[in-house]
Design goal:
The chain is α+β, with helices and mostly antiparallel strands. The protein has four domains: about 100 residues, no CATH class; about 170 residues, Nucleotidyltransferase, domain 5 (2-Layer Sandwich); about 60 residues, no CATH class; about 100 residues, no CATH class. About 45% of the residues lie in helices and about 15% in strands. It contains 19 helices and 14 strands. The strands form four sheets. The protein has a five-stranded mixed sheet, sandwiched between helices. α12 packs across α14, α13 packs across α15 and α14 runs antiparallel to α15. The longest helix has 15 residues.
């Protein structure tokens, strides 16, 4: 088709519109083909345009301001008398706008074990524990062999960043001498030209594993083209239309894809090798791993309020009750949350990736209940527990839900005084059977049982806090003696 366009234009001297009409093409397609063939735009004009009188002004303005938008230039030309439409004007500007010359890049090559490239990639969102979380991919590619390590995760925190590095080093059985980073916040905190401030945690990590962290130059994506091509390969060849059950399953599939699909491809620089064979050669010259691991984790200070919990990433984690009103340190990895008081670990929990969860250690709750029980014994707790033994279970369940233990025991004592031990014990049993460990539920059961028995609700009587009064037992007298006296009186009258 291009040859036919050239022949009709040069040999037959057909204008652009005639060629387009006869070949069934749009006139812009014909014009573009001829421009790419070296025909000047002035030779392609088939009819006078409304922009012709303003073309010199447009060209001089675009030469001075190459990035000026077509809409602004359109307004400037309209102020000078142009009455044409914006669409045609925009097409004319596109044809005449100065274009930056194409830049050529040198093909970069590295030695075995010399360099690896690192980057993050975003893959949408997933739901974890009822919460929408970002799905991100950490990628590290050995530059010589093109062998890749992939690890999907749920955040881009510094702890996760370094944790993925360690997993990659273990998978490679070594460390490259230089790691290239894009200008990630995880790697570079400040940069002005060649003045670079690295993240202190990354510098300490790099020093431990003996490699040089090196950021690529701004706007020089070709310097880390291997990792960018790997990410594009993951999107098209691995992730598209893939089904998986959870994050562990997705990472297992990614590891298998790197080994069985990507690893079997031919090496781009040496077609006699596969990527896996090249990796075997490169692995032999990587720097060995140190004997000890670097402590990779996110660290954050957390204040403990009146309740014994610290908050991290939207969830509450229990701590011993004697740590309330203190500032502790949370150290979190992808699967564990530890809480430190100074250097002492006071709590350790499995990490929750949900939101608004309470993650609790039963020992912490048991200690809190025991402390509350000891504090309340002198004010009637033992009396309630002796009268209704299952009240202990109700108080424990209430403590697990963060309820007020002291207030609950005080109200149970009032119910004990008003209804008696037998009724209180029966009502607590019924409330616990309904999975309603609340004093209000116990009170409702007591009122219902009294109504069912045809009795009036008791009148609350406030007694002085005097053991001589509270210890008095009032027994209901028998009325038989009055009947006997009445009988004697009636017999005397006879």
């Amino acid at each position: 088709m291009k040859a036919k366009i050239r022949r009709l234009f040069h040999s037959e001297q057909w204008p652009v519109g005639t060629i387009a009409r006869e070949l069934g093409l749009h006139h812009s397609a014909v014009r573009n083909a001829l421009v790419r063939d070296g025909v000047p735009l002035t030779a392609l004009a088939t009819r006078r345009s409304k922009t012709d009188p303003y073309l010199a002004f447009m060209l001089s303005t675009l030469e001075k301001y190459p990035t000026l938008t077509a809409s602004r230039l359109y307004e400037m030309v309209r102020e000078r008398g142009y009455d044409g439409g914006p669409d045609h004007f925009r097409a004319v500007v596109a044809r005449h706008r100065p274009r930056k010359a194409a830049e050529a890049f040198m093909r970069l090559s590295t030695l075995r074990g010399e360099e690896a490239q690192v980057d993050w990639a975003f893959f949408g969102h997933i739901e974890v524990d009822g919460v929408r979380r970002p799905l991100v991919l950490f990628v590290m590619v050995l530059s010589w062999s093109r062998w890749a390590f992939l690890r999907f995760g749920l955040d881009m925190r510094m702890g996760s960043f370094l944790e993925h590095h360690e997993a990659a080093f273990r998978a490679f059985s070594g460390v490259a001498r230089v790691l290239l980073y894009d200008n990630l916040k995880s790697a570079v905190t400040q940069r002005i030209g060649d003045a670079i401030v690295f993240n202190e945690d990354l510098l300490a990590f790099a020093g431990h594993y003996g490699y040089e962290p090196r950021p690529v130059a701004p706007y020089r994506g070709n310097e880390k083209g291997r990792v960018e091509r790997a990410i594009r390969d993951v999107r098209t060849s691995f992730f598209a239309a893939r089904e998986w059950t959870d994050l562990a399953d997705l990472n297992a599939q990614a590891e298998r894809w790197c080994r069985e699909v990507r690893g079997t491809r031919r090496h781009p620089d040496d077609r006699t090798l596969t990527v896996a064979q090249a990796f075997d050669e490169e692995r032999a010259v990587l720097r060995p791993l140190p004997s000890d691991a670097f402590p990779v984790a996110d660290r954050a200070e957390a204040k403990v309020g009146k309740t014994p919990y610290v908050r991290f990433d939207g969830n509450d984690y229990s701590v011993p009750h004697d740590r309330v009103r203190r500032t502790l340190t949370v150290v979190a990895t992808s699967d564990t949350v530890r809480v430190l008081d100074g250097t002492a670990v006071v709590a350790a929990h499995a990490r929750s990736w949900g939101k608004g969860r309470q993650v609790e250690d039963p020992a912490h709750l048991a200690a809190l209940v025991e402390r509350k029980r000891a504090a309340r014994q002198a004010r009637g707790m033992n009396r309630v527990f002796v009268a209704a033994p299952r009240a202990q279970e109700l108080v424990r369940r209430l403590a697990e839900r963060g309820g007020n233990i002291g207030g609950a025991v005080a109200r149970l004592g009032e119910l004990l005084d008003a209804f008696g031990a037998t009724e209180l014990a029966a009502a607590i049993d019924e409330a616990m059977a309904m999975d309603a460990p609340h004093v209000a539920a116990v009170r409702q059961v007591l009122d219902r049982r009294r109504r069912d028995n045809g009795q009036l609700a008791p009148i609350a009587v406030t007694l002085p806090d005097d053991p001589r009064v509270r210890g008095v037992v009032v027994r209901r007298p028998t009325l038989g003696v009055y009947d006997a006296l009445k009988g004697l009186k009636e017999a005397g009258n006879e």
